[in-house]
Design brief:
- The protein is α+β, with helices and mostly antiparallel strands.
- It has 2 domains: about 130 residues, no CATH class; about 45 residues, no CATH class.
- Helix content is about 35%, strand content about 20%.
- Strands 1, 2, 3, 4, 5, 6 and 7 form a 7-stranded mixed β-sheet that branches.
- Strand 5 and strand 6 form a beta hairpin.
- Helix 4 runs antiparallel to helix 5.
- The longest helix has 20 residues.
- It is elongated, with a radius of gyration of 24 Å.
- The relative contact order is 0.13.
């Protein structure tokens, strides 16, 4: 089971820690075990290592102090709508987002992957989990003493509940063509040509930048 995990970077020790409790994560790919002190069953307590499902959480990273990781949950895993809670967790990849992404990848020796690749990785693990969950042999019989009228839910509410917002970066669409036009115009002028002959190259750069933005959706 894979999910998105944020870790805080401590510049004094050079380690990455959990923002909530300050647990230092091992740098050898080993699992970090959660310590549960609650006498309640696993389903009702709140102990465990959390990870989110939606990649929109990556954009909430404090780029100056945090990095986004792909975490693998092990042991007992409780799956919810927004993510899961696991008995233990291990870091498997670093999401290429923020100024600390490269430092995190070098610190843990993990691959640096794009946000779109991380999203596909997480969604694939959720599909495997749902397909591997056996269905009950017979549905539970309803209690005749209990009556419940379900609250109607509009399609708009359901769409808002299960659609995660995306925030692609649009700056390559404007920056890359301008840089290409400036450099190309300068080179063409030095060669005795007209600067506007570099416009087709700027158009190709705009097309390539558009493909990059689409891939991040």
């Amino acid at each position: 089971m894979f999910g998105f995990k944020h870790l805080h970077h401590d510049p004094d020790t050079g380690t990455f820690q959990s923002p909530a409790y300050g647990n230092e994560w091992p740098q050898d790919g080993a699992y970090l075990d959660a310590e549960c002190q609650s006498p309640e069953p696993l389903e009702s307590c709140t102990c465990g290592i959390y990870a989110r499902r939606d990649d929109y959480s990556v954009t909430l990273v404090d780029e100056s102090r945090e990095a986004a990781f792909i975490m693998e949950g092990g042991g007992e895993v409780i799956v919810g709508e927004m993510g899961f809670r696991a008995q233990r967790g291990a870091l498997r990849a670093v999401v290429n987002f923020g100024s600390l992404a490269l430092l995190a990848a070098l610190t843990f020796g993990l691959p640096l992957i794009r946000r779109s690749s991380a999203r596909r990785m997480v969604e694939a693990s959720y599909k495997e989990h749902y397909y591997a969950t056996p269905l009950p042999a017979e549905p539970p019989s309803p209690d005749p003493a209990y009556t419940h009228t379900p609250t109607p839910v509009s399609p708009h509410t359901m769409q808002r509940r299960y659609t995660y917002p995306r925030s692609p970066s649009l700056w390559p669409l404007f920056l890359y063509p301008l840089v290409t036009l400036f450099i190309g115009g300068f080179i063409f002028s030095r060669l005795g040509l007209e600067w506007y002959q570099a416009i087709p190259f700027a158009g190709l750069t705009f097309f390539a930048a558009g493909l990059q933005v689409i891939s991040d959706l």
